[in-house]
Task: structure prediction
Amino acid sequence: MIKTITKETNPKEYEALETAAKILTALSPNGAYYTVEECYFDYGQDWKWTTVIGNKRDGTSWQALCPRDHDLITDIGTLEAIVKAVENTINDEHNPDRKREVTA
Result:
């Protein structure tokens, strides 16, 4: 669901997002780190949500979760659901952290 949450308002959902962020950070092939943040889902509609953000060392960032995987984490919230969402995120062809970057 597209909504903003905090540790205080939705502790289980927020903790599930934090768990996903920690797993994605640990599995990053490029040293990216993942955080839980509030950001725009749709800037034009002024819709915000709390989700997992990927951050590269060069300062670029992206929304790591698609809405389907976000809902797996926040609505179901089991470890199995979190692992499935992380697996989907890692294997997504549009994930900027999918493959090891070659540096010259």
Notes: The chain is about 40% helix and 20% strand. Residues 11-27 form the longest helix (17 residues). Helices lie at 11-27, 67-76, 79-91.
